[in-house]
Amino acid sequence: MTQATDPESTRQQHSDTDETAAWAGDVLRDDADHCRLLQLMQDYEVSGLMRWDLTEDRIVYSPGLLELLDLPLKKLGPTIHDLAKWVAEEDRMKLIDRLERLRMGRERTVNVRARFDLPGSRFTWLQIRASVAEDNEGNPLDILGLFEEVRPAASELDTEDAAGELLRTIFENSLDVILLVDLEGNILDCNTLACRQFGYERDDLLETPFSDLVSPSMVEEMGSSLVEAFLTGGSSMEYEARLKDGTLFPIEAAGVMNVVDGIPQVLLNMRDISHRKQWERDREHFLESLGLMQRFESIGAVAGGLAHQFNNIFGGLLGHVELLQMKAKQYPELQDTLDMMADTIDQASGITGQLSAYSSRSEPEIRKIHLARLLQSMHSLLDAVS
User: Fold this and answer.
1) pTM (2 decimals)?
2) Which SS3 state, helix, strand or coil, does residue 269 take?
């Protein structure tokens, strides 16, 4: 039975092979070695390769191997012992011993599995197949190694490995941004959300100084103590973080110190609080509006009480004016004045009625008025008091 092949996967595989083949053409000694390496690549379908130059005792790594280990070249180093320092202690001496036997001609090929412990509590298992290239006299010149990532058997995972794998899963799937930073501000590791939050690719973020992720004002204020400022003893602090494009946004962070191989490291847990800050602003605006409404209600209550008191007073005044009108019929010159007083009291009573309506939030009474008559009555009133 034949298995269908994904065209996109095939194109990617050819791309990786072409890139490594171009690298191989630059570092291998002759066409025979080049063809031999290409055959190995085709046989094992891998691009993680190294060439150990035994004459100069120097290792050259393929781009595929750097990508497989997710390490920059400067961290790997040029010697076999530099490479071996990334191998787990229980596998390190075994790998070095097998490669030394290969270099001394005691073995023709090596096929060994080793665990590589990488920065940020990451680790991976690699299958390493290596063989020696000799000159015409049978002297070893180079050792060619192929590295392939493999999944370890359950028996090879001890409790510590299983815990490490669980922690890495939690680290990568955390709902918060997590960064591992040294005291100099170098980012040693980051989770997927950190890359997405700040707008970087993973490799770019690991090469970015931590100070580039913080507002310039905080960098200026803290100086060389920037990372220590996040050691808050378990409590969190708020500050302005900076995206790759320079945009600032509020974030909450807490840091804890850890020492690995004698090197202090700070694990930073961060959370974007833009939505919370917006909610706080909306809540403050709502409380201000609520306070204003409560003040209006208080004013309305006071206005209602005053209107009630004034209505009582106006009622008494109007009663006395009406009594005067009844007794002043024989004094026509007073009748007009008493009529104007009655109209004025009626108008004042109407104003207090409006205050009372406002305080009780009742529907206002709408009625037609004779504007000319109203103006005339006001004119007469003004003449009377002038």
Assistant:
1) 0.41
2) strand
pLDDT tens per residue across span 320-347: 878 877 877 777 777 778 778 888 887 7
Which is nearest to 227 in space by CA: 213, 242, 243? 213
Element (H, E) at 241: strand 237-242
Q: Is 45 left (phi over 0), alpha (psi -120 to 50) or beta?
A: left
pLDDT in tens, 189-238: 888 899 989 999 888 888 889 889 988 888 887 777 777 777 765 567 88
Which residues lie below 8 Å from residue 341, measured CB to CB, with a gap of 6+?
Answer: 321
- How many C-beta atoms lie closer than 10 Å to residue 69's C-beta? 21
Helix axes 274-327, 332-360, angle to 10 degrees: 160
| Number of neighbouring beta carbons within 10 Å of residue 165 | 15
Phi-psi region of 262 (alpha: psi -120 to 50; beta: other; left: phi over 0): left
Kindly tell me the sign of the dihedral angle through the C-alpha atoms of 73, 77, 81, 87.
Answer: negative
pLDDT at 36 over 60: no
Tell me the torsion sign for CA atoms 100, 103, 108, 112.
positive
> Which residue type occupies 123?
F
Sheet holding 140-150, edge to edge: 58-61, 48-53, 140-150, 122-134, 109-118
**Nearest partner of 175 among 271, 256, 239, 284, judged by Cα:** 271
